[in-house]
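Need residues for this backbone.
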């Protein structure tokens, strides 16, 4: 999200030398995707921008206070910022298609405690199977939506 004060922030090149707020932390799924997209354009955001991490509500407050030039955050916080005049600088759809995706992408991830996962591999496999089956049902049936 870019504030009204950043009208020229529209492409990944425009993030160079900017202060970028990343909601969720360095491993949040959108951040590695944006970094990869930038690297394809010859930009190492970790080196060529100033990155700050934090919880989504904090990053929104920093954006509203004018403390950052752009904010990578979750959709519901994007909606709130848009209602206050912010706009999408680079859509994640643009990012994933720039990385080679051919169709619409739903970005979803799962996290498990490592020691719990080591002790419960069958449970994780059953969970992932159920999630895969649910996606297949949704992909094949308008009724289920």
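Answer:
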């Amino acid at each position: 999200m870019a504030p009204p004060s950043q009208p020229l922030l529209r492409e990944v090149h425009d993030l160079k030398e900017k202060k970028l707020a990343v909601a969720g932390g360095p491993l949040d799924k959108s951040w590695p995707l944006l970094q990869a997209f930038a690297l394809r354009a010859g930009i190492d955001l970790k080196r060529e921008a100033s990155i700050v991490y934090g919880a989504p509500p904090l990053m929104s407050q920093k954006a509203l206070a004018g403390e950052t030039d752009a904010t990578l955050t979750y959709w519901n916080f994007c909606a709130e910022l848009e209602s206050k005049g912010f706009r999408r600088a680079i859509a994640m759809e643009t990012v994933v298609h720039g990385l080679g995706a051919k169709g619409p992408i739903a970005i979803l991830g799962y996290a498990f405690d490592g020691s719990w996962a080591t002790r419960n591999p069958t449970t994780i496999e059953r969970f992932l199977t159920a999630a895969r089956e649910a996606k297949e049902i949704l992909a094949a049936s308008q009724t289920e939506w």
